[in-house]
Amino acid sequence: EACLSAIDAADALNAFVHKTPEIALDRARAADERLQGREEAPAMCGIPIGIKDLFCTEGVPSQAASRILDGFRPEYESTVSRQLKDAGAVMLGKLNMDEFAMGSSNETSVYGDAVNPWRREGDATRLTPGGSSGGSASAVAADLCLGATGTDTGGSIRQPAAFTGITGIKPTYGRCSRWGIVAFASSLDQAGPMTRDVRDAAIMLQAMCGHDMKDSTSADLAVPDFEAALTGDIKGRKIGLPREYRMEGMPAEIEKLWADGAEMLRDAGAEVVDISLPHTKYALPAYYVIAPAEASSNLARYDGVRYGRRAKLAQGDGVVEMYEKTRAEGFGHEVQRRVMVGTYVLSAGFYDAYYNRARKVRTLIKRDFEQVFADGVDAILTPATPSAAFGLGEMSESDPVQMYLNDVFTVTVNLAGLPGISVPAGLDTQGLPLGLQLIGRPWEEAALLNGAYALE
Ligand code: GLN
Protein backbone atom coordinates (compact mmCIF):
# COMPACT_ATOMS: atom_id res chain seq x y z
CA GLU A 1 0.00 0.00 0.00
CA ALA A 2 2.87 2.35 0.76
CA CYS A 3 4.29 1.67 -2.70
CA LEU A 4 0.91 2.19 -4.36
CA SER A 5 0.53 5.60 -2.68
CA ALA A 6 4.10 6.52 -3.57
CA ILE A 7 3.37 5.65 -7.20
CA ASP A 8 0.23 7.82 -7.22
CA ALA A 9 2.16 10.70 -5.69
CA ALA A 10 4.89 10.39 -8.33
CA ASP A 11 2.82 10.66 -11.51
CA ALA A 12 5.13 13.45 -12.67
CA LEU A 13 7.91 10.90 -13.16
CA ASN A 14 5.73 8.99 -15.64
CA ALA A 15 7.50 5.80 -14.56
CA PHE A 16 4.46 3.54 -14.28
CA VAL A 17 2.41 3.54 -17.47
CA HIS A 18 -0.10 0.98 -16.27
CA LYS A 19 -0.85 0.50 -12.59
CA THR A 20 -2.18 -2.80 -11.29
CA PRO A 21 -3.27 -2.09 -7.69
CA GLU A 22 -5.79 -4.97 -7.54
CA ILE A 23 -3.22 -7.50 -8.69
CA ALA A 24 -0.71 -6.00 -6.25
CA LEU A 25 -3.00 -6.26 -3.24
CA ASP A 26 -4.08 -9.80 -4.16
CA ARG A 27 -0.51 -10.94 -4.47
CA ALA A 28 0.50 -9.11 -1.31
CA ARG A 29 -2.23 -10.94 0.62
CA ALA A 30 -1.13 -14.26 -0.84
CA ALA A 31 2.46 -13.45 0.13
CA ASP A 32 1.38 -12.62 3.69
CA GLU A 33 -0.26 -16.01 3.94
CA ARG A 34 2.76 -17.74 2.53
CA LEU A 35 5.08 -15.94 4.91
CA GLN A 36 2.94 -17.00 7.84
CA GLY A 37 2.93 -20.58 6.61
CA ARG A 38 5.25 -23.35 7.63
CA GLU A 39 7.53 -23.65 4.65
CA GLU A 40 10.31 -21.19 4.14
CA ALA A 41 9.24 -18.61 1.56
CA PRO A 42 11.65 -17.45 -1.19
CA ALA A 43 13.46 -14.17 -0.57
CA MET A 44 11.32 -12.38 -3.18
CA CYS A 45 8.07 -13.29 -1.41
CA GLY A 46 6.06 -10.13 -0.74
CA ILE A 47 8.56 -7.81 -2.44
CA PRO A 48 6.83 -5.07 -4.48
CA ILE A 49 8.30 -4.72 -7.95
CA GLY A 50 7.60 -3.11 -11.30
CA ILE A 51 7.71 -4.87 -14.66
CA LYS A 52 9.05 -3.21 -17.81
CA ASP A 53 6.34 -2.91 -20.48
CA LEU A 54 8.42 -5.17 -22.77
CA PHE A 55 7.43 -8.22 -20.70
CA CYS A 56 4.14 -9.88 -21.59
CA THR A 57 1.95 -10.06 -18.50
CA GLU A 58 -1.20 -12.13 -18.61
CA GLY A 59 -4.36 -10.05 -18.96
CA VAL A 60 -2.43 -6.82 -18.37
CA PRO A 61 -1.63 -4.35 -21.18
CA SER A 62 1.82 -5.06 -22.60
CA GLN A 63 2.63 -2.59 -25.34
CA ALA A 64 6.42 -2.27 -25.45
CA ALA A 65 5.55 1.45 -25.25
CA SER A 66 4.38 1.34 -28.86
CA ARG A 67 1.19 2.59 -30.47
CA ILE A 68 1.12 -0.47 -32.68
CA LEU A 69 0.40 -2.69 -29.66
CA ASP A 70 -2.56 -0.57 -28.52
CA GLY A 71 -5.07 -2.78 -26.78
CA PHE A 72 -2.80 -5.85 -26.66
CA ARG A 73 -3.38 -7.90 -23.51
CA PRO A 74 -1.40 -11.12 -23.73
CA GLU A 75 -3.00 -14.40 -22.77
CA TYR A 76 0.32 -15.56 -21.40
CA GLU A 77 2.99 -14.48 -18.94
CA SER A 78 6.69 -14.15 -19.82
CA THR A 79 8.86 -16.77 -18.14
CA VAL A 80 10.82 -14.16 -16.17
CA SER A 81 7.75 -12.39 -14.80
CA ARG A 82 6.11 -15.78 -14.12
CA GLN A 83 9.14 -16.90 -12.11
CA LEU A 84 9.06 -13.68 -10.09
CA LYS A 85 5.36 -14.17 -9.50
CA ASP A 86 5.88 -17.77 -8.43
CA ALA A 87 8.55 -16.59 -6.01
CA GLY A 88 5.88 -14.38 -4.42
CA ALA A 89 6.95 -11.00 -5.83
CA VAL A 90 4.17 -8.42 -5.99
CA MET A 91 3.70 -6.69 -9.35
CA LEU A 92 2.67 -3.05 -8.92
CA GLY A 93 2.31 -2.28 -12.63
CA LYS A 94 4.06 -1.86 -15.96
CA LEU A 95 6.96 0.50 -16.47
CA ASN A 96 7.74 3.08 -19.11
CA MET A 97 10.48 2.46 -21.68
CA ASP A 98 11.64 3.48 -25.13
CA GLU A 99 9.41 2.10 -27.88
CA PHE A 100 10.43 -1.54 -28.49
CA ALA A 101 13.45 -0.81 -26.26
CA MET A 102 15.06 1.34 -28.96
CA GLY A 103 16.65 4.35 -27.37
CA SER A 104 18.83 5.65 -24.56
CA SER A 105 16.61 8.33 -23.04
CA ASN A 106 13.05 6.97 -22.80
CA GLU A 107 12.01 9.72 -25.22
CA THR A 108 10.66 7.37 -27.90
CA SER A 109 7.84 6.01 -25.72
CA VAL A 110 4.23 6.39 -26.85
CA TYR A 111 3.47 7.24 -23.20
CA GLY A 112 5.83 10.22 -23.23
CA ASP A 113 9.14 10.71 -21.43
CA ALA A 114 9.91 9.04 -18.14
CA VAL A 115 11.61 11.53 -15.83
CA ASN A 116 14.69 11.08 -13.66
CA PRO A 117 14.03 11.91 -9.98
CA TRP A 118 17.50 13.55 -9.81
CA ARG A 119 18.21 17.22 -10.67
CA ARG A 120 21.42 19.14 -11.24
CA GLU A 121 22.26 21.28 -8.24
CA GLY A 122 20.29 24.53 -8.34
CA ASP A 123 18.75 23.68 -11.70
CA ALA A 124 15.18 22.49 -12.26
CA THR A 125 15.78 21.05 -15.76
CA ARG A 126 14.02 17.71 -16.11
CA LEU A 127 16.56 15.01 -16.87
CA THR A 128 16.30 11.69 -18.65
CA PRO A 129 16.47 8.55 -16.51
CA GLY A 130 18.24 6.94 -19.47
CA GLY A 131 16.81 4.22 -21.64
CA SER A 132 15.47 2.06 -22.72
CA SER A 133 14.55 0.85 -19.20
CA GLY A 134 13.92 4.46 -18.09
CA GLY A 135 10.70 3.82 -16.19
CA SER A 136 12.31 0.94 -14.30
CA ALA A 137 15.27 3.10 -13.29
CA SER A 138 13.15 6.08 -12.31
CA ALA A 139 10.75 3.93 -10.24
CA VAL A 140 13.53 2.23 -8.28
CA ALA A 141 15.49 5.46 -7.77
CA ALA A 142 12.38 7.24 -6.47
CA ASP A 143 11.55 4.35 -4.10
CA LEU A 144 8.27 3.56 -5.83
CA CYS A 145 9.19 -0.13 -5.75
CA LEU A 146 12.02 -2.24 -4.38
CA GLY A 147 13.14 -3.59 -7.70
CA ALA A 148 12.18 -3.67 -11.36
CA THR A 149 12.78 -5.84 -14.36
CA GLY A 150 14.79 -4.37 -17.19
CA THR A 151 16.07 -5.64 -20.51
CA ASP A 152 19.43 -4.90 -22.06
CA THR A 153 20.19 -5.26 -25.77
CA GLY A 154 22.98 -2.68 -25.92
CA GLY A 155 22.99 -1.10 -22.46
CA SER A 156 19.35 -0.57 -21.54
CA ILE A 157 19.75 -1.85 -17.98
CA ARG A 158 23.22 -0.49 -17.22
CA GLN A 159 22.95 3.03 -18.68
CA PRO A 160 19.65 3.94 -16.93
CA ALA A 161 20.99 2.40 -13.70
CA ALA A 162 24.04 4.68 -13.95
CA PHE A 163 21.88 7.75 -14.71
CA THR A 164 19.70 7.23 -11.64
CA GLY A 165 22.19 6.01 -9.03
CA ILE A 166 20.93 2.44 -8.82
CA THR A 167 22.34 -1.03 -9.61
CA GLY A 168 21.57 -3.01 -12.76
CA ILE A 169 22.96 -6.28 -14.05
CA LYS A 170 22.73 -7.76 -17.51
CA PRO A 171 23.43 -11.46 -17.08
CA THR A 172 25.22 -13.72 -19.55
CA TYR A 173 23.22 -14.22 -22.76
CA GLY A 174 21.08 -17.29 -22.10
CA ARG A 175 20.89 -16.91 -18.31
CA CYS A 176 17.31 -15.56 -18.36
CA SER A 177 14.65 -16.91 -20.67
CA ARG A 178 13.56 -14.50 -23.41
CA TRP A 179 10.21 -16.24 -23.76
CA GLY A 180 7.34 -13.78 -23.57
CA ILE A 181 9.58 -10.72 -23.78
CA VAL A 182 8.83 -8.65 -26.88
CA ALA A 183 11.84 -9.30 -29.13
CA PHE A 184 14.09 -6.43 -30.24
CA ALA A 185 17.38 -8.07 -31.35
CA SER A 186 17.15 -11.71 -30.34
CA SER A 187 20.87 -12.50 -30.31
CA LEU A 188 21.54 -9.59 -27.94
CA ASP A 189 18.43 -9.26 -25.71
CA GLN A 190 18.69 -10.25 -22.04
CA ALA A 191 16.51 -9.52 -19.03
CA GLY A 192 17.96 -8.50 -15.69
CA PRO A 193 17.09 -6.84 -12.38
CA MET A 194 17.36 -3.14 -11.51
CA THR A 195 17.60 -2.56 -7.77
CA ARG A 196 18.85 -0.23 -5.06
CA ASP A 197 21.97 -2.23 -4.31
CA VAL A 198 24.00 -5.29 -5.23
CA ARG A 199 22.46 -7.59 -2.61
CA ASP A 200 18.97 -6.89 -3.94
CA ALA A 201 20.24 -7.48 -7.49
CA ALA A 202 21.63 -10.87 -6.43
CA ILE A 203 18.34 -11.87 -4.80
CA MET A 204 16.16 -10.71 -7.67
CA LEU A 205 18.39 -12.20 -10.38
CA GLN A 206 18.19 -15.54 -8.58
CA ALA A 207 14.42 -15.57 -9.08
CA MET A 208 14.62 -14.43 -12.71
CA CYS A 209 17.06 -16.86 -14.27
CA GLY A 210 17.23 -20.56 -15.06
CA HIS A 211 16.67 -22.95 -17.91
CA ASP A 212 13.44 -22.70 -19.91
CA MET A 213 12.36 -25.22 -22.53
CA LYS A 214 10.45 -22.45 -24.28
CA ASP A 215 13.61 -20.50 -25.17
CA SER A 216 16.09 -22.60 -27.15
CA THR A 217 18.90 -20.14 -26.31
CA SER A 218 18.33 -20.38 -22.57
CA ALA A 219 21.18 -22.22 -20.87
CA ASP A 220 20.68 -25.53 -19.14
CA LEU A 221 23.00 -24.66 -16.27
CA ALA A 222 22.55 -24.73 -12.53
CA VAL A 223 21.89 -21.32 -10.98
CA PRO A 224 24.32 -20.67 -8.12
CA ASP A 225 23.33 -18.93 -4.89
CA PHE A 226 24.17 -15.36 -5.90
CA GLU A 227 23.56 -13.81 -2.49
CA ALA A 228 25.85 -16.33 -0.77
CA ALA A 229 28.65 -15.20 -3.11
CA LEU A 230 28.63 -11.69 -1.63
CA THR A 231 31.56 -11.93 0.72
CA GLY A 232 33.31 -8.78 -0.43
CA ASP A 233 36.52 -10.80 -0.61
CA ILE A 234 38.25 -10.07 -3.91
CA LYS A 235 41.83 -10.68 -2.78
CA GLY A 236 44.01 -11.84 -5.64
CA ARG A 237 41.34 -11.27 -8.30
CA LYS A 238 42.74 -9.76 -11.46
CA ILE A 239 40.87 -6.69 -12.74
CA GLY A 240 41.60 -5.31 -16.21
CA LEU A 241 41.35 -1.68 -17.31
CA PRO A 242 40.95 -1.65 -21.11
CA ARG A 243 42.99 1.13 -22.66
CA GLU A 244 40.61 1.49 -25.62
CA TYR A 245 37.87 2.73 -23.27
CA ARG A 246 39.97 5.80 -22.47
CA MET A 247 38.16 7.74 -25.17
CA GLU A 248 39.37 11.01 -26.52
CA GLY A 249 37.51 13.91 -24.96
CA MET A 250 36.43 11.86 -21.97
CA PRO A 251 35.29 14.23 -19.21
CA ALA A 252 37.83 14.54 -16.38
CA GLU A 253 35.25 13.49 -13.81
CA ILE A 254 34.60 10.21 -15.63
CA GLU A 255 38.37 9.56 -15.72
CA LYS A 256 38.57 10.26 -12.02
CA LEU A 257 35.61 8.03 -11.24
CA TRP A 258 37.28 5.21 -13.12
CA ALA A 259 40.64 5.73 -11.39
CA ASP A 260 38.95 5.89 -7.97
CA GLY A 261 37.10 2.65 -8.72
CA ALA A 262 40.35 0.94 -9.67
CA GLU A 263 41.93 2.25 -6.45
CA MET A 264 39.07 0.84 -4.37
CA LEU A 265 39.49 -2.58 -5.91
CA ARG A 266 43.25 -2.43 -5.38
CA ASP A 267 42.72 -1.47 -1.73
CA ALA A 268 40.44 -4.49 -1.37
CA GLY A 269 43.31 -6.72 -2.49
CA ALA A 270 42.66 -7.08 -6.22
CA GLU A 271 45.45 -6.88 -8.76
CA VAL A 272 44.63 -4.13 -11.26
CA VAL A 273 46.24 -4.40 -14.69
CA ASP A 274 46.06 -2.54 -18.00
CA ILE A 275 44.60 -4.61 -20.81
CA SER A 276 43.78 -4.14 -24.47
CA LEU A 277 40.53 -4.92 -26.30
CA PRO A 278 41.71 -3.86 -29.75
CA HIS A 279 38.42 -4.04 -31.66
CA THR A 280 36.45 -1.85 -29.26
CA LYS A 281 36.12 1.05 -31.68
CA TYR A 282 34.16 -1.10 -34.13
CA ALA A 283 31.60 -2.20 -31.54
CA LEU A 284 29.17 0.67 -31.90
CA PRO A 285 28.96 0.54 -35.71
CA ALA A 286 28.66 -3.27 -35.63
CA TYR A 287 25.90 -3.04 -33.03
CA TYR A 288 23.98 -0.46 -35.03
CA VAL A 289 24.00 -2.82 -38.02
CA ILE A 290 23.20 -6.08 -36.20
CA ALA A 291 20.55 -4.75 -33.81
CA PRO A 292 18.46 -3.00 -36.53
CA ALA A 293 18.86 -6.04 -38.83
CA GLU A 294 17.38 -8.35 -36.22
CA ALA A 295 14.79 -5.76 -35.24
CA SER A 296 13.56 -5.35 -38.81
CA SER A 297 12.95 -9.07 -38.95
CA ASN A 298 11.34 -9.31 -35.49
CA LEU A 299 9.06 -6.35 -36.16
CA ALA A 300 7.70 -7.84 -39.37
CA ARG A 301 5.04 -9.56 -37.26
CA TYR A 302 3.26 -6.25 -36.55
CA ASP A 303 1.04 -6.34 -39.60
CA GLY A 304 -2.30 -5.09 -38.36
CA VAL A 305 -3.67 -8.61 -38.13
CA ARG A 306 -1.92 -10.57 -35.43
CA TYR A 307 -1.50 -8.04 -32.63
CA GLY A 308 -2.82 -4.75 -31.39
CA ARG A 309 -3.79 -1.97 -33.70
CA ARG A 310 -4.94 -1.82 -37.30
CA ALA A 311 -5.14 1.48 -39.16
CA LYS A 312 -8.48 2.71 -40.52
CA LEU A 313 -8.66 1.70 -44.13
CA ALA A 314 -10.26 3.48 -47.07
CA GLN A 315 -12.63 2.00 -49.61
CA GLY A 316 -10.60 -0.13 -52.01
CA ASP A 317 -7.56 -0.56 -49.75
CA GLY A 318 -6.04 -4.02 -49.96
CA VAL A 319 -3.71 -5.96 -47.74
CA VAL A 320 -0.64 -3.95 -48.78
CA GLU A 321 -2.33 -0.68 -47.83
CA MET A 322 -3.31 -2.24 -44.53
CA TYR A 323 0.32 -3.10 -43.76
CA GLU A 324 1.58 0.27 -44.89
CA LYS A 325 -0.94 2.39 -43.05
CA THR A 326 -0.81 0.30 -39.87
CA ARG A 327 2.97 0.36 -39.69
CA ALA A 328 3.25 4.03 -40.70
CA GLU A 329 0.99 5.18 -37.89
CA GLY A 330 1.79 2.42 -35.40
CA PHE A 331 5.58 2.77 -35.29
CA GLY A 332 7.34 5.89 -34.05
CA HIS A 333 10.24 7.58 -35.89
CA GLU A 334 13.12 5.77 -34.24
CA VAL A 335 11.50 2.37 -34.79
CA GLN A 336 10.88 3.21 -38.44
CA ARG A 337 14.50 4.30 -38.78
CA ARG A 338 15.68 0.95 -37.35
CA VAL A 339 13.37 -1.03 -39.65
CA MET A 340 14.71 0.86 -42.66
CA VAL A 341 18.36 0.52 -41.66
CA GLY A 342 17.84 -3.15 -40.84
CA THR A 343 16.08 -3.92 -44.10
CA TYR A 344 18.79 -2.11 -46.02
CA VAL A 345 21.74 -3.94 -44.43
CA LEU A 346 19.99 -7.28 -44.99
CA SER A 347 19.11 -6.58 -48.62
CA ALA A 348 20.75 -8.77 -51.27
CA GLY A 349 23.04 -6.04 -52.59
CA PHE A 350 24.38 -4.90 -49.21
CA TYR A 351 24.24 -8.03 -47.05
CA ASP A 352 27.93 -8.85 -47.37
CA ALA A 353 29.12 -5.28 -47.11
CA TYR A 354 27.19 -4.53 -43.90
CA TYR A 355 25.47 -7.38 -42.12
CA ASN A 356 28.07 -10.07 -42.75
CA ARG A 357 30.91 -7.70 -42.02
CA ALA A 358 29.30 -6.64 -38.77
CA ARG A 359 28.96 -10.29 -37.77
CA LYS A 360 32.67 -10.83 -38.40
CA VAL A 361 33.51 -7.79 -36.31
CA ARG A 362 31.31 -9.20 -33.58
CA THR A 363 33.40 -12.37 -33.55
CA LEU A 364 36.59 -10.33 -33.28
CA ILE A 365 35.15 -8.39 -30.34
CA LYS A 366 34.21 -11.63 -28.62
CA ARG A 367 37.74 -12.96 -29.18
CA ASP A 368 39.25 -9.83 -27.62
CA PHE A 369 37.44 -10.69 -24.40
CA GLU A 370 38.29 -14.40 -24.63
CA GLN A 371 41.97 -13.51 -24.96
CA VAL A 372 41.91 -11.26 -21.91
CA PHE A 373 40.12 -13.89 -19.83
CA ALA A 374 42.58 -16.55 -21.04
CA ASP A 375 45.36 -14.30 -19.77
CA GLY A 376 43.91 -14.61 -16.29
CA VAL A 377 41.79 -11.47 -16.01
CA ASP A 378 38.70 -12.11 -13.84
CA ALA A 379 36.76 -8.93 -14.52
CA ILE A 380 37.03 -5.69 -16.47
CA LEU A 381 36.35 -2.26 -14.99
CA THR A 382 35.08 0.63 -17.15
CA PRO A 383 32.84 3.66 -16.75
CA ALA A 384 29.19 2.73 -17.41
CA THR A 385 28.42 5.83 -19.50
CA PRO A 386 30.39 8.65 -21.10
CA SER A 387 28.41 11.29 -19.14
CA ALA A 388 25.84 11.81 -16.41
CA ALA A 389 22.12 12.07 -17.22
CA PHE A 390 21.31 14.75 -19.81
CA GLY A 391 18.27 16.97 -20.08
CA LEU A 392 15.11 15.71 -21.75
CA GLY A 393 14.98 17.16 -25.25
CA GLU A 394 18.67 18.08 -25.12
CA MET A 395 19.71 15.58 -27.79
CA SER A 396 18.54 16.38 -31.24
CA GLU A 397 16.20 13.92 -32.89
CA SER A 398 17.75 14.64 -36.25
CA ASP A 399 21.15 13.40 -35.13
CA PRO A 400 20.55 9.86 -33.87
CA VAL A 401 24.28 9.07 -33.78
CA GLN A 402 24.70 11.53 -30.90
CA MET A 403 22.23 9.40 -28.94
CA TYR A 404 23.86 6.13 -30.04
CA LEU A 405 27.19 7.31 -28.57
CA ASN A 406 25.68 6.80 -25.11
CA ASP A 407 26.11 3.07 -25.61
CA VAL A 408 29.83 3.20 -26.34
CA PHE A 409 30.85 1.40 -23.10
CA THR A 410 27.97 -1.06 -22.94
CA VAL A 411 27.35 -2.60 -26.40
CA THR A 412 30.57 -4.66 -26.45
CA VAL A 413 29.18 -6.73 -23.57
CA ASN A 414 26.02 -7.64 -25.52
CA LEU A 415 27.96 -8.39 -28.69
CA ALA A 416 30.14 -10.81 -26.72
CA GLY A 417 27.22 -12.20 -24.68
CA LEU A 418 28.97 -11.44 -21.37
CA PRO A 419 27.54 -10.44 -17.99
CA GLY A 420 27.92 -6.77 -17.04
CA ILE A 421 26.84 -4.77 -14.02
CA SER A 422 26.56 -1.06 -13.35
CA VAL A 423 26.95 0.18 -9.78
CA PRO A 424 26.58 3.73 -8.48
CA ALA A 425 30.04 5.19 -7.93
CA GLY A 426 29.64 8.79 -6.86
CA LEU A 427 28.34 12.11 -8.07
CA ASP A 428 29.55 14.47 -10.76
CA THR A 429 30.31 18.15 -10.15
CA GLN A 430 26.64 18.99 -10.61
CA GLY A 431 25.52 16.43 -8.06
CA LEU A 432 24.32 13.78 -10.53
CA PRO A 433 25.02 10.08 -10.08
CA LEU A 434 27.64 8.27 -12.16
CA GLY A 435 28.11 4.54 -12.56
CA LEU A 436 30.97 2.11 -12.99
CA GLN A 437 30.67 -1.04 -15.03
CA LEU A 438 32.22 -4.40 -14.22
CA ILE A 439 32.28 -7.01 -16.98
CA GLY A 440 32.67 -10.66 -16.05
CA ARG A 441 33.44 -14.03 -17.56
CA PRO A 442 30.51 -15.89 -19.07
CA TRP A 443 28.25 -17.55 -16.46
CA GLU A 444 30.22 -16.00 -13.61
CA GLU A 445 27.53 -13.62 -12.39
CA ALA A 446 28.23 -14.73 -8.81
CA ALA A 447 31.84 -13.50 -8.96
CA LEU A 448 30.73 -10.39 -10.84
CA LEU A 449 28.15 -9.49 -8.21
CA ASN A 450 30.78 -10.02 -5.52
CA GLY A 451 33.17 -7.69 -7.34
CA ALA A 452 30.42 -5.08 -7.58
CA TYR A 453 29.69 -5.60 -3.89
CA ALA A 454 33.31 -4.70 -3.12
CA LEU A 455 32.91 -1.51 -5.18
CA GLU A 456 29.67 -0.46 -3.50
N1 GLN B 1 20.37 2.33 -26.74
C1 GLN B 1 20.51 1.10 -27.45
C2 GLN B 1 19.58 1.07 -28.63
O1 GLN B 1 18.87 2.00 -28.80
C3 GLN B 1 20.29 -0.07 -26.53
C4 GLN B 1 18.89 -0.36 -26.25
C5 GLN B 1 18.71 -1.57 -25.41
O2 GLN B 1 19.63 -2.06 -24.76
N2 GLN B 1 17.50 -2.09 -25.45
O3 GLN B 1 19.56 0.15 -29.41
UniProtKB/TrEMBL annotation:
<dbReference type="InterPro" id="IPR000120">
    <property type="entry name" value="Amidase"/>
</dbReference>
<dbReference type="InterPro" id="IPR020556">
    <property type="entry name" value="Amidase_CS"/>
</dbReference>
<dbReference type="GO" id="GO:0005524">
    <property type="term" value="F:ATP binding"/>
</dbReference>
<feature type="domain" description="Amidase">
    <location>
        <begin position="1"/>
        <end position="449"/>
    </location>
</feature>
<dbReference type="GO" id="GO:0050567">
    <property type="term" value="F:glutaminyl-tRNA synthase (glutamine-hydrolyzing) activity"/>
</dbReference>
<comment type="function">
    <text>Allows the formation of correctly charged Gln-tRNA(Gln) through the transamidation of misacylated Glu-tRNA(Gln) in organisms which lack glutaminyl-tRNA synthetase. The reaction takes place in the presence of glutamine and ATP through an activated gamma-phospho-Glu-tRNA(Gln).</text>
</comment>
<comment type="subunit">
    <text>Heterotrimer of A, B and C subunits.</text>
</comment>
<protein>
    <recommendedName>
        <fullName>Glutamyl-tRNA(Gln) amidotransferase subunit A</fullName>
        <ecNumber>6.3.5.7</ecNumber>
    </recommendedName>
</protein>
<feature type="active site" description="Charge relay system">
    <location>
        <position position="52"/>
    </location>
</feature>
<keyword id="KW-0067">ATP-binding</keyword>
<keyword id="KW-0436">Ligase</keyword>
<dbReference type="GO" id="GO:0030956">
    <property type="term" value="C:glutamyl-tRNA(Gln) amidotransferase complex"/>
</dbReference>
<feature type="active site" description="Charge relay system">
    <location>
        <position position="132"/>
    </location>
</feature>
<dbReference type="InterPro" id="IPR023631">
    <property type="entry name" value="Amidase_dom"/>
</dbReference>
<comment type="similarity">
    <text>Belongs to the amidase family. GatA subfamily.</text>
</comment>
<feature type="active site" description="Acyl-ester intermediate">
    <location>
        <position position="156"/>
    </location>
</feature>
<keyword id="KW-0547">Nucleotide-binding</keyword>
<dbReference type="GO" id="GO:0006412">
    <property type="term" value="P:translation"/>
</dbReference>
<dbReference type="Pfam" id="PF01425">
    <property type="entry name" value="Amidase"/>
</dbReference>
<dbReference type="InterPro" id="IPR004412">
    <property type="entry name" value="GatA"/>
</dbReference>
<dbReference type="InterPro" id="IPR036928">
    <property type="entry name" value="AS_sf"/>
</dbReference>
<keyword id="KW-0648">Protein biosynthesis</keyword>
